[in-house]
Amino acid sequence: MAFGEFDLISTYFTQRWPNRADVELGVGDDGAILNVPEENQLVVVTDTMVSGVHFDEQTPARAIGHKIAAVNLSDLAAMGAEPAWLSLAITLPEVDHEWLTSFSHGLREICDYYDCQLVGGDTTRGPLSVTLTAHGLLPKGHALRRDGAKPGDWIYVSGTLGDAGLALACQQQRCKVSDSHYRRVLERLYFPSPRVALGQNLRDVASSAIDISDGLQADLGHILKASNVGARLDVDEIPLSMALTESVTADLAIQFALSSGDDYELCFTVPESRRGVFDTLMARHPAKPTCIGRVTSEPGKLRLERDGEPWQGPEADTESVGGYEHFR
Fold first, then answer.
1. Hey, where are the domains in the chain?
2. Residues marked as binding for ATP?
3. How far is the C-alpha of 238 from the C-alpha of 222, rounded, in Å?
């Protein structure tokens, strides 16, 4: 018996998924019916992952399922939103039951953890790609945005940076690391952890925020442009993992942290007047973010420093902001 589109949806994307009370009608009809709580706003984000661009045949299907959700939830985290509903569009060259089982397992795991429900989508035949739209909820008027940074604000990042970039460099045979370090950085590349709780804690504290998907230098640059400000970073303060610092030179480790994508940490700014409140909030947080610099009044200028002097790394540009862009 042929296995068609509706069999695929029923088998892999309707059974044993989280069920939220605010979903009146989910997968299985022409559209979903969702109840947005009163005094809340809806935050909507979308990401696409394409075979040969964002992942290759080495990438486990479970990791693809996890990551397509994680990158969207990271965007919601950067806005301070609570994840709620997902819709998935998947294009497949053929029905591969083993691949679909693993993919849906990875997607369902992260949905279970963050209590978000798959409520719709589409399946088609063609080159392998996945597109996911995530909807999040936010108390009205409390969104984190990119355009609120002011001169004098302190710049923070969560977690450690550069690990996913190192994993990709190893896969491309540009770097070689120990087996134990490779396992750690590969986990960061394949299974990023969106900082959802941190984003919600920052709603009334941070003046601006963004998630780090294209590299710290590029993504901080988006805040600087939107806020019409500049920044000064102390590169020695950028948090780095042991896996990174023990695998490459100090300058190259900093460069990975500045320019590698796929970290999915948060970069945000905190005014001096709210720094005490921020420290109190973070005292209960499992991993306190790291202060790496300060916002300046020079629009668009990012100054990288070490010991108070300009720092020029292996590929660093201290006057402008670059990063990965499609079509460039």
1. 5-139, 154-310
2. 121-122, 146, 213
3. 18
